[in-house]
Amino acid sequence: MLIIIPVEKENGLESTVCTLKNVKKWALVNIDSDTIEPTFYDDWKNTDADFIEHVILDNHDEDALDFINEGIFCLVSRQEKQIDELIAAFRFRELDEMAF
Predict the structure, then answer these.
(1) Which range of residues forms the domain containing residue 26?
(2) What pLDDT, in 10s, does the model give residues 34-92?
(3) What is the rounded distance in angstroms from the CA atom of residue 17 to the CA atom of residue 23?
(4) What does the DSSP assignment read for 36-88?
(5) Burial of 20 by CB count in 10 Å (0-12 exposed, 13-18 middle, 19+ buried)?
(6) How far apart, in whole angstroms, are the C-alpha atoms of residue 4 and residue 55?
(7) How many distinct structural domains can be found in the chain?
(8) Is the separation of the CB atoms in 59 and 19 below 8 Å?
(9) Mapping DSSP to helix (H, G, I), strand (E, B) and coil, where does residue 20 land?
(10) For residue 27, what are the β-bridge partners?
(11) 54: number of CA atoms within 13 Å, CB side?
(12) Which CATH number do you get for residue 90?
């Protein structure tokens, strides 16, 4: 399962989620992989991934329409910020669904 996360800078698992306004890189994480190591891209649409299932956004005020139109399920971080924390929260279903 592939998850995409907007981040300000490339810092491995310690990269932190940011608003779409401040995004500089996109972290793509395959949570079915043996090792959870993000791959970073400049544009979320150019990742060569067949299908991204989820995006984790920083807050409920984000404009998620582009993701929804692509069939990507939108989740929102509660207090988690780093990629490793976000993936753990995802696995334990501790992320919020995007509210509209």
Answers:
(1) 2-97
(2) 888 999 999 999 998 999 999 999 999 999 999 999 999 999 999 999 999 999 999 99
(3) 8
(4) ---EEES-TT-S--S---EEEES-TTS--HHHHHTTPEEEE-SS--BHHHHHH
(5) middle
(6) 5
(7) 1
(8) yes
(9) helix
(10) 5, 40
(11) 20
(12) 3.30.420.130
